[in-house]
């Protein structure tokens, strides 16, 4: 059964962290388990000294996935972990029981400015894993599988899950699909979907035909159930993220950077943060 475009969620622009501009689907957290948030960071071109990021902030109970397309970011946390993110790199951070984390522009971005563009996605964790030990997976672009279809019409970067016969290298707590796709004008991409998983498409360039409906730049397409998805690019081609995963059928209590199952757990997270025992 082919998946259809059930609804289209529009985006709006907000400021996050130290004031960086993101394009965010409206009310996504109520629509698409296991995903809580999808932020398209930029694209924005900074002048020297203008680039901004997200200074120290806590997380508990979920995962943050940062995928950089242009620019340069650096991260550090309360456990002494640190590293750089360059174009094409992915950081898959499992906050678990808690981390205090920062994401800031690399020095060359602050000194020289330049284009910054990427994504940050929040993935919920089931109750059984919310207090797991934190972990990082910093995966350089060269280690992330990329594939082009035999006819040269479709390119895919397989961050999580499978596409065009290629499987990702990232280890996920729950089974996740996260694929970056580029289709040439009129090209067709067919994806074999797990029937029990939710699936969505975020278009950030061009447009796509999904069944009888069109998904345009800046739209988040929520798909119906089925075992196959067919994307057909518009006359200018199209670029998108394909995201999927299982429904986490549990209560969600959410307050800023904490995502738990009960208000009592949120209160405890706040107490732990204030007492310096979150991480």
Can you offer a commentary on this structure?
- β23 and β24 form a beta hairpin.
- The strands form five sheets. Strands 1, 13, 14, 17, 18, 19, 20, 21 and 22 form a nine-stranded antiparallel beta sheet that branches. Strands 2-3-4-11-6-9-12 form a seven-stranded antiparallel beta sheet, with no helix packed on it.
- It contains two helices and 24 strands.
- It has a single domain (5-246), classed as Sandwich (Jelly Rolls), CATH 2.60.120.
- The mean pLDDT is 93.
- It has helices at residues 107-112, 263-275; strands at 5-9, 11-16, 20-25, 35-46, 54-59, 62-70, 73-77, 82-85, 90-94, 99-105, 114-124, 135-139, 146-148, 154-160, 162-163, 166-167, 177-183, 188-192, 197-210, 213-216, 220-223, 228-246, 253-255, 258-260.
- With 279 residues, the chain is mainly beta.
- The N and C termini lie far apart (45 Å).
Q: Could you give a short description of this structure?
A:
Helices cover 7% and strands 55% of the residues. With 279 residues, the chain is mostly beta strands.
What's the arrangement of secondary structure elements?
Blueprint: E1 5-9, E2 11-16, E3 20-25, E4 35-46, E5 54-59, E6 62-70, E7 73-77, E8 82-85, E9 90-94, E10 99-105, H1 107-112, E11 114-124, E12 135-139, E13 146-148, E14 154-160, E15 162-163, E16 166-167, E17 177-183, E18 188-192, E19 197-210, E20 213-216, E21 220-223, E22 228-246, E23 253-255, E24 258-260, H2 263-275
Antiparallel strand pairs: 1-21, 2-3, 3-4, 4-11, 5-10, 6-9, 6-11, 7-8, 7-10, 9-12, 13-14, 14-17, 15-16, 17-22, 18-22, 19-20, 19-21, 19-22, 23-24
